[in-house]
Amino acid sequence: MRAVLVENPGDESRLVLGEFDTPHPAENELLVRVHATALNRADLLQRSGKYPVPKGASPLLGLEMAGVVEEVGSGCSGWSVGDRVFGLLPGGGYAEFATIPQEIAMPIPEAFSFEEAAAIPEVFLTAYQALVWLGELKEGEDILIHAGASGVGTAAIQLAKEIGARIWVTASKPKHKLCITLGAQGAIDYKSEDFVERINTLTQEKGVNLIIDFLGASYLSKNIECLGLDGRLVMLALMGGARVDSLNLATLFRKRIHLKASTLRNRSLAYKVALTKAFNDDFGTSLGKGLIKPIIDSIYDWSEVAKAHNRMAANLNAGKIVLKVT
Ligand SMILES: NC(=O)c1ccc[n+]([C@@H]2O[C@H](COP(=O)([O-])OP(=O)(O)OC[C@H]3O[C@@H](n4cnc5c(N)ncnc54)[C@H](OP(=O)(O)O)[C@@H]3O)[C@@H](O)[C@H]2O)c1
Questions:
Q1: With a 6 A CB cut-off, is 175 part of the ligand 1 pocket?
Q2: What is the pLDDT of residues 273-306, one digit of tens each?
Q3: 174 and 198 fall within a common domain
Q4: Mean pLDDT over all residues of the chain?
Q5: Would the CA dihedral through 264, 270, 276, 278 be positive or negative?
Q6: Which structural domain range is residue 75 located in?
Q7: What CATH number does the domain containing 252 carry?
Q8: Is the per-residue pLDDT at 261 higher than 90?
Q9: Which end of the chain has a smaller Cβ tally under 10 Å, C or N?
């Protein structure tokens, strides 16, 4: 089959369309002819040799896909050749064919194109896990979502709105309108404003109940300042570094703060199955009705994968960058 290969880890010029062995569906797996996949920051890291592939996963890039069932593995039930299907992958989405365990495969809602469906799994499941399972967000609470216009951010805003939270985001100025349209009450330009000051004013000095963070070290002290009593901080990435020079733990005690860090990719299949099911139970209807939807920044043919990676690396995207597998 054809697939996007990384010739040697490095910049986007190392991405080439080439040949790779077609995967075979194991027991309880579906073989899918991929029509679309979508970019994630992890792809950029893996391409550069900075993200080791989890054991047993395809070495190809691509953490999600949408397509059509080509073959049904033994032990599968409820799936037929020709069904439209989408879901999370541990790797292997940048290819003509991918295999997916039937329990995490989801039927594509009728209203969604392949490109729209491919833009859903990674960011919505990550946002759902962060807001609901880890962050325990409740109606009426205040949440601060950093990188509000990112793929995960745009999914998180929509889920938080459905939950009934008051939503504040940080994002660069040109991306504020999108965040507000999706349901944020206010957007803070982190490049020109002090987000700690703004959050304290916006919450009448109470602080927020939950923060979804992607920056890590560079934001840790500021995030702790923004949290209210019993506040939760869910860290999903380290775009601002991993090492903290100094931290006064007394504030954590005074505010009874919970710190959590998580990655989705290296979770067990059983965890991903349970997460997918819980997301569908809680938000499947909203998704089917279009109340929550993938926000697509741009769609590239996969022959332009280098351009797509460049756009993400330059922080130009608002929402998801999708690749059409043609
Ligand atoms: N832990 C997990 O399970 C998990 C799962 C999925 C993704 N992630 C991580 O979550 C992050 C977001 O992923 P994504 O795919 O949604 O990313 P994305 O769509 O590429 O968006 C990232 C955005 O973050 C903002 N940003 C970048 N550097 C920044 C900085 N130094 N300070 C403040 N904001 C900055 C930029 O927007 P502005 O223009 O607003 O600055 C950028 O567009 C990535 O780091 C990804 O690896 C983690």
A1: yes
A2: 999 999 999 999 999 888 999 999 999 999 999 9
A3: yes
A4: 97
A5: negative
A6: 2-120+294-324
A7: 3.40.50.720
A8: yes
A9: C
Q: How far is the CA of 58 from the centre of ligand 1 (A)?
A: 23
Regarding the beta carbon of 262 and ligand 1, being less than 6 Å apart is answered yes
How many helices (H) and strands (E) the chain has is answered by 10, 15
Closest atom of ligand 1 to 45 CA is: 47
Q: Is residue 286 part of a domain?
A: no
Query: What is residue 244's predicted lDDT score, i.e. its pLDDT?
Result: 95
What are the DSSP E strand ranges found in the chain? 2-6, 15-19, 29-38, 64-72, 84-88, 97-101, 106-107, 142-145, 166-170, 186-188, 208-213, 227-235, 258-261, 296-301, 320-324
- Per-residue model confidence (pLDDT) at position 266: 86
| 149 close to ligand 1 (CB < 6 Angstrom) | yes
Each residue's pLDDT tens digit, 178-211: 999 999 999 999 999 999 999 999 999 999 999 9
Structure tokens at 84: 């439209």
125 lines ligand 1 (CB under 6 A): no
**Residue of 239, 268, 321 with the most ligand 1 atoms within 8 Å of its CB, for mutation:** 239
The reply to whether 272 falls in a domain is: no
Same domain, 223 and 169: yes
**Cα of 236 from ligand 1 centre, angstroms:** 9
* Residue identifier of the C-alpha nearest atom 42 of ligand 1: 315
- Provide the whole-model pTM: 0.97
Ligand 1: distance of its center to the CA of 42 in Å? Answer: 10
- Probe target for ligand 1 pocket from 37, 39, 41, with the most ligand atoms within 8 Å of CB: 41
For ligand 1, the distance from its centroid to the CA atom of residue 148, given in whole angstroms, is 9
pLDDT of residue 267: 93
* 281 in any annotated domain: no
Asked if residue 310 and residue 183 are part of one domain, the reply reads no
Residues 191 and 235 occupy one common structural domain: yes
Same domain, 309 and 250: no
SS3 171: coil
Same domain, 98 and 50: yes
pLDDT in tens, 134-147: 999 999 999 999 99
**Structural domain total, the chain:** 2
Q: Using pLDDT thresholds of 50, 70 and 90, give the confidence band for residue 70.
A: very high
Look at residue 276 and tell me if it is in a domain. no
